[in-house]
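re: ur question from yesterday

yeah so i grabbed the chain u mentioned. its 337 aa long if i counted rite. heres the sequnce exactly as i have it in my notes:
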Amino acid sequence: MYSKLKPFGILSLFILMAFYSLQEIPLVYPSYFPAPVYDFKINPLKRAKIELGRKLFYDPVLSRNNSISCSSCHHADQAFSHAGNGLSKGIEDGIGDRNSPAIFNLAWQKKFMWDGSVGNIDVQALAPINHPKEMGEDINAVVRKLNKSKEYKTLFYRSFGDSAATAERVMKALSQFQLTIVSADSKYDKVRQGKAKFTETESRGYQVFKQNCSSCHTEPLFSTYGFANNGLPINPDLKDNGKWNKTMEPEDKLMFKIPSLRNLSYTYPYMHDGRFQTLNEVLEHYEKGILKSPTLAKELQKPIVFKGNEKEDLLAFLKTLDDSVLVSNREYRDGGK
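ran it thru and got these structure tokens back, copy pasting raw so excuse formatting
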């Protein structure tokens, strides 16, 4: 009797595995977060696609010489940044044009890249794949390589019901994985949830933050994810004018995407070109280094003046935005281990 039931049992197991892989799963985030701006109706989260996206994220097959993966510049234990590197590093020791941004809370962002030149996370990965100094590859070549892999044929079949890799499927799988990277488990979040309390120093720093930083770095994401000129003198080596490089519109000159203040301990150096190694240097800029220009943010027309221990208090508060759970989460590691 057992031998007669065995094929049915195997079939049932495959059905259960397929259901498990293709079932839609919700994006988990705190109640005090705003609703995501990403349209999950177009590309609903599914476990199989997330797992495929994670494998692609860690696979150097996306680069021309199979040496650089997405994770090469976006390390899980560095809040998916490239800590210690001012500019991105790519194939054959190539150096990119900008600092590798941390990638978390992407479901709340409408524009991507420091200049906002990409308007949809579902196609964002094309930029580093095609960049000659980063991954230096053509997406069609990537697809050809993937279609030669038996493992990827299986993974694409589980994800899309068809074993063929396509450019669209590669992009959507990568975005699925990246959309699940949510940073919402810092001390700040625990305070919001009533599970912890700020120290007196952190509380004072919170007030300094609200007085000087919150208009651009709005809670709870700690960014509006808009664009601003924060008074940085232009880097003479890079000649980077932000959005203006693409639009050539005067109002876009020196406008760069506003990064989140979450996880700053893991994501140094700072600014679009990684010019500041420490947060003290960043605060020094806002106090003494702002360069006036026609597009300078209105909030920075007057420098920030820190009194007494306000710098130290602010730094203590910013430390509460570090998410140690995020950087140690095995679900985000290669192979989910």
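noticed a couple things. Residues 187-325 form a domain with the Cytochrome Bc1 Complex; Chain D, domain 2 fold (CATH 1.10.760.10). also Confidence is low (pLDDT under 50) at residues 1-5, 10-17.
anyway ttyl
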